[in-house]
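From the pipeline queue, job 12 of 40. The input is one protein chain; the requested action is below.

Action: predict structure.
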Amino acid sequence: MALRTIRIAGDPVLEKTCREVKEITPRLRELIADMFETMYEGSGVGLAAPQVGVLKRIAVIDCTGEDPITLINPVIVETDGEQTGDEGCLSLPGKAGQVTRPMHVVVEALDENMEKIRIEGEELLARALCHEIDHLDGHMYMEKVEGELHDVVYEEEAEEGEEG
């Protein structure tokens, strides 16, 4: 496994629609492992392949640190309700904004073994599913921000600031 470089907002790769995955290969398995490692290193809850420069319909999500999800060719098949909350992105570090997303989402996809899966998510998982699938379609959350983006202070930075 290896850390991958995360593409930053403004990179044209992030504006492209990703290609469907037809088969899982050793290179794609390596990509998925690298995506999880990169996501965890960045303290994110999700990462899509275009964020590491790969235009494939692959995303990884882990909202709890205990239940990693690999999504290949995901499609949102059902939504319900509404939630508005702060949302950030590893491709726009240090910023966040208010975004309205569905409260409940159902996604159909393939897992890393190309087996069909159905994921139902609420609250943070629903938000993460929508956010990562948007990336696969060339969209970033800033397009949906209500109001202005604001700076995010991470706990480690806040603790350092208190000490200094």
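Job complete. The mean pLDDT is 94.
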